[in-house]
Amino acid sequence: MLDFSNPDAVEFAKSIIKDNMLKEARAVGWMADFGEYTPMDVKYKNYAGSAYDYHNRYPYDWAKANQEAIKEAGKEDETVYFMRSGSTISPGVTSLYWMGDQMTTFDKYDGIQSALIGMLNGGVCGFTLGHSDIGGYTSINNADHLLYYRRDEQVMIRWMEMSAFSDVLFRTHPSNNPNFNV
Length: 182
Hints:
The protein is of the alpha/beta class. It folds into two domains: 1-85, no CATH class; 99-182, no CATH class. The protein is built from four helices and six strands; from the N terminus they run αβαββαβββα. It has helices at 7-24, 51-72, 112-124, 153-166, and strands spanning 29-31, 80-83, 96-98, 130-131, 140-142, 147-149. The strands form two sheets. Strands 1-2-3-4 form a four-stranded parallel β-sheet, covered by helices on one side. Strands 5-6 form a two-stranded antiparallel sheet. Strand 5 and strand 6 form a beta hairpin. The two termini are 34 Å apart. 32% of the residues are buried. The model has no long low-confidence stretch (mean pLDDT 92).
């Protein structure tokens, strides 16, 4: 994790985005993930508050670094990045949101229904552009513990239908267990 309260760390992150991702790799989109996993026991270079307080600021600063790097490279009309973390100030600096790693099920707690609810609630709260992994991500095949969650054909088809009419980005994912799922 980078300390985005430190201007040197911000410039370092932006140089990687500009030089390695945009210029060298010619990337036009990426997942700017893990803004939600800030340590709760650290001291930040230029943030006087607690690590708990900065936890909500971190996704904004991470998104802002992405946005600034893209703008500095002159690629703002052709590049998108997406995040799953944010706070009330994040929508102004984030291109797109992702609903996270749902189960490969119809489940309302962590399946297709939760993805739809997340996008609808996010849209009402200012996170207007969102998407989910089509078909879900997390599947489990553990017969020893009677845990069995598999993306079947119906889940995949219904998720594609939902995404065609609700998501701003149509993005599939092979899941954490591709050989087990449709």
